[in-house]
Amino acid sequence: MTINVDDIFPENNFFQMTESGPQIIKSSELFGDKKVLLVGVPGAFTPTCSEEHLPGYAKSMEAFKQKGVDKVIFVTPNDPFVVKSWSKGFEESGIEFISDGNGEFRKKSGFEIDLSSAGLGKRFTRFAILVENGIVKKIFNEGSPGLNISKAENVLTEI
After folding, report:
1. What is the pLDDT of residues 85-141, one digit of tens each?
2. pLDDT confidence of 1, banded at 50, 70, 90?
3. Residue 13: how many CB atoms within 10 A of its CB?
4. What pLDDT score was predicted for residue 119?
5. Strands 13-18 vs 21-26: parallel, antiparallel or unpaired
6. Which letter, b or e, does each residue of 53-73 get, where b requires 16 or more Cβ atoms within 10 Å of its Cβ?
7. Residues ≥6 apart with Cβ < 8 Å to 157
8. Which of 56, 70, 83, 128 has its CA at a distance of 20 to 30 angstroms from the CA of residue 157?
9. Other C-beta atoms within 10 Å of 146: how many?
10. In the chain, what are the domain boundaries?
11. Residue 41 is inside which H or E element, if any?
12. Which residues are catalytic?
């Protein structure tokens, strides 16, 4: 399956770290009744994700809010403990972080790349998905390890 524009965002369990440990958070809770930008990255702490992709969104949060985006959420295929560590330093940005550690969304979304040659296994491509009230409105999918289509500056001009 591949997610397309005008699709209902698929029901999915993500994980989010809380004070009591990892907790399941359903996609319907994340995307219902709001305008959300979901940004997917191949991995926490990877150079492009950590040094370019994430910081671009952190710097642009106010501009996204001005465009009516209620939340920006980063999702990685890493476990929730790694995602929590990766999020440190970005708490003030307003970005939320979730884990797809079981690969449930990766498999459903079609935004998958095999990075086994680099020891990473199957991961997300870099992408951003604009979801309004549970409906996919825009998709910015790199389709490869690069960073162009889904970087904050480009997404801002298209929403």
Report:
1. 888 878 788 899 999 989 899 888 888 776 667 766 576 788 999 999 999 999 998
2. low
3. 12
4. 66
5. antiparallel
6. bbebbbebbeebeeeebebbb
7. none
8. 83
9. 12
10. 13-158
11. none
12. 49
